[in-house]
Amino acid sequence: MSKANYHFYVTGAIQLGVGYGVVSLIARWITGNTILSSPETLMKYGLTGGIGYSLMGSLALILFGLLVKRIRVVYVEHQTIGDVLRSKLSPIGYWYMISILLITSLYSLFIQAMGAGILLHLIFPIPVFYGLFIFLFICFFISGIGGMQWLHRLAGVNVTLIFGAVIVIPVYFFIQEGVYPVYDGIKLYHPYLLFYKNQEAIWFIFTAVLIGFGQVLIDCTTWQRVFIIQKEKVRMTFTLAGVIWSTIPLAITTLVLIVLFGHGYKNIYTLLFQLVDKIQSSLLIVLFVLFCFSAISSAISSELHATTVLIVRNIIELFRKQSENEKWKWTYLITGITCLILLVIVSILSPIPIDLLFFFGNIYSSIIIPMLYIVLSRRPLPAIIPFASLCGLLGGSLLIPIVGNMQSIWISFTISGLLCFFYYLYETMYIKKNYK
């Protein structure tokens, strides 16, 4: 890649069609959180919860796909979500939204790095710090130096390994064990997994879809894909990506059921270790390891790239005009510092992925209506629209001790939505009054 043209680092050299656009989106959204949270959701909410987790990402991509055609028509010269926000918001509103984007992007990076650290510890007998250092160095090389072109090149390989693993490994096990013994074993040892009238699981599904849509709606990486997929094919691409993505959590759920059917378990991480131990074929073990690290490396590399571009293009560029060489220097520096921070934090902390999902759920749910308002409005907006999400976030978070995590997420969504609705009524009445 020529360092004389930073534009190619951001967008790549070509516009993507449906096939490669789907591959790029799948490579972004099959993450460490998918690998770790799918089994955890199954154990907590049963098969209904496992199905619900697959709906979370699937419906999120499909719903966002309903917006992308308008985004491509209205925001013709833009390349990132930061460009869109800058064109529609006042300075204070813009910087608030940029802060939210940075927080959620760093959260997403942390989840991927944490997943890599856990899997490294389970699969290889080496300290987490050293394994994670090597892994993050590879991600730095792909995203910080290679940019979008390298992400495009590796996406096809990553997705091939992912689907190869989730198809071949379950088929291998079912041929070895049979379908009915697995079902009978689950019914004997874990009958609660088959209970489908679980109201808490149904509530989880709706809440997860809400969180997933908010997550996709402000994901910097996904917005980059919006602007590099061919305009006439962008909606179909997101719809197909959503449908295909839903098969991955279901396949991971199947793998967990295969491990569980003959005995109990200690925790979700021992299940993953038992899965590796149960795969007796060396070729399948290698395939499973490649699946895990292909998924996580593609996700973290994409997120690193998008976060770096956001900082260089939508933060630093506003304070000083940069030459092409300066942009590259900032890119290397920001990507390296981010990787170093992830290495230190993940080596110290080890939270549960699904708990983090709901911890940030209030942010994602409260941002949905304000973000839709920003995208769909025809004129610049005052700070009250983005700050409606802050009111929703604070309102829902304060009520967590009283109503619980899932209910607070809906409260955050409702508060921010009502504030945006009241502003819409005020704006409509004000315009009509001036028109008369």
TrEMBL record:
Q: Enumerate the subcellular locations listed in this protein's record, separating them with semicolons.
A: Cell membrane
Listed A to Z, the keywords are:
Cell membrane, Ion transport, Membrane, Sodium, Sodium transport, Symport, Transmembrane, Transmembrane helix, Transport
Lipid bilayer topology: Multi-pass membrane protein
Q: What is the catalytic activity of this protein? A: L-proline(in) + Na(+)(in) = L-proline(out) + Na(+)(out)
User: Membrane-spanning regions, if any?
Assistant: 7-30, 50-68, 94-112, 118-142, 154-175, 201-218, 238-261, 281-300, 330-350, 356-376, 383-403, 409-426
What InterPro entries does its record include? Na/Glc_symporter_sf, Na/solute_symporter, Sodium:Solute_Symporter
The answer to whether the entry has keyword Ion transport is yes
Protein family per UniProt: Belongs to the sodium:solute symporter (SSF) (TC 2.A.21) family.
**Which protein is depicted?**
Na+/proline symporter
Source organism phylogeny: Bacteria, Bacillati, Bacillota, Bacilli, Bacillales
